[in-house]
Design goal:
This protein is α/β, with parallel strands linked by helices. Helix content is 45%, strand content 13%. A hairpin with a 2-residue loop joins strand 4 (96-97) and strand 5 (100-101). Helix 9 crosses helix 10 (183-197) and helix 17 packs antiparallel against helix 18. The radius of gyration is 20 Å and the shape is globular.
């Protein structure tokens, strides 16, 4: 029999699933899985209920959990994950809602720093460890005709706002019953983001996280990015210019980064739930997640993040960012949040482009949040 699965279209996402299928087939020769992929934008916003109509297995983002718990669109997997939590940071917690676990962490990420080591060396600089050092690096780079870099397109600018708010000790509200953000702190964070943008090329407002990584590997004027969802595969040796990853250089250290990553879930509409469960059990094993990493994946299992050979393969990405993900922050997940994330991301980008002012942005975000 054949299961259908959906993920997003990057080698970090699709390659681990496809390339480890022989391992799964060795145990379950009767089960085929056809994996499809979609653009990152679709991954971020397409309702799980829509995907659940067509797919048995779904790779998804945790902000959907409120809608999932409300509509029961997925099959709980508590019997698989049990009471133990072998995953980095709050990865597993992000998929728990309403007393149930709705997805298995198969990929872990949060906003971290990323550098071009060769360009830093030419500036006689090291990766910044805090925001003051970051801005000093930015000023130094500009004098040499180089830049800091950010991915500020839509939702990605909102995620950086979330990260910085949590980092300075004033995290945004996790539900609509609370005010969205402390206004004074929000103004300070927005000023930091605008200042950062002045040290970046204008294209930063057009980049999502993938485009940011691509730009840093192909251009020779992007020295350092302080906050982007890590794609560890860009540190692999087959990259023309491998990147290096670092803990978040926030104003107060590395805490508060908005956690990302993905989970593997089973559609409640599937006609083959037992077979889908067999695959989730397979994916939960540390050996499987180790194999994911060997095929450009970015597993969530703690054992992978601590493995010496894996760290060598990925330029010590996992070891160098472990403190950040272990102190990361979970963004809102309430039913209705995805609409806020999409519209709020557009508003944040519009503010950074100078289209709307600070007061209009903050009032708009509050109204969107309260309406969710």
């Amino acid at each position: 029999m054949r299961l259908k699965g959906i993920t997003w279209d990057h080698r970090r996402a699709i390659d681990p699933l496809v390339e480890t299928m022989p391992l799964f087939k060795a145990r379950h020769p009767e089960i085929e899985i056809e994996w499809s992929s979609r653009p990152l934008s679709g991954f971020e916003f397409t309702p799980v209920s829509t995907l659940a109509e067509s797919y048995d297995l779904i790779i998804l983002d945790h902000p959907f959990m409120g809608a999932v718990a409300a509509a029961q669109t997925l099959v709980p997997i508590d019997d698989i994950v049990g009471r133990e939590d072998p995953f980095v940071g709050p990865s597993l917690e992000t998929y728990r809602m309403g007393g149930k676990t709705w997805a298995l962490p198969v990929d872990a990420a949060c906003q971290v720093g990323v550098s071009r080591r060769d360009l830093l060396a030419k500036l006689d600089s090291v990766p910044p460890g805090n925001w003051a050092e970051l801005m000093a690096l930015g000023a130094k780079a500009l004098k040499r005709g180089q830049f800091l870099a950010m991915g500020f397109k839509g939702v990605h600018s909102l995620m950086t706002f979330f990260t910085l708010m949590a980092n300075v000790g004033s995290p945004c509200a996790s539900n609509g019953k609370q005010d969205f953000a402390n206004r004074q702190t929000a103004r300070e964070v927005l000023a930091m983001m605008r200042d950062l943008l002045r040290h970046c090329p204008p294209e930063s407002l057009d980049w999502n996280s993938i485009a940011l990584h691509d730009a840093m590997t192909t251009r020779d004027d992007l020295v350092f990015c302080p906050a982007v969802y890590c794609y560890a595969t860009y540190a692999e040796a087959d990259q023309r210019r491998p990147l290096h990853f670092h803990d978040l250089p926030g104003p107060t250290g590395h805490g508060g980064s908005a956690i990302g990553g993905t989970g593997l879930a089973i559609s409640a509409r599937s006609k083959h739930i037992a077979e889908a469960m067999a695959y989730v059990r397979f994916a939960a094993e540390s050996a499987t997640q180790m194999a994911f990493a060997l095929h450009h994946g970015q597993p969530a299992h703690r054992r992978v993040w601590e493995d010496d050979a894996i760290n060598e393969r990925f330029g010590n990405c996992y070891r160098n960012t472990r403190a950040t993900i272990d102190s990361s922050w979970i963004r809102p997940r309430y039913d209705g949040y995805l609409s806020f994330q999409e519209k709020g991301g557009g508003m944040m980008e519009a503010h950074l482009r100078g289209i709307i002012g600070e007061d209009e942005l903050l009032s708009g975000l509050q109204d969107l949040h309260a309406g969710g």
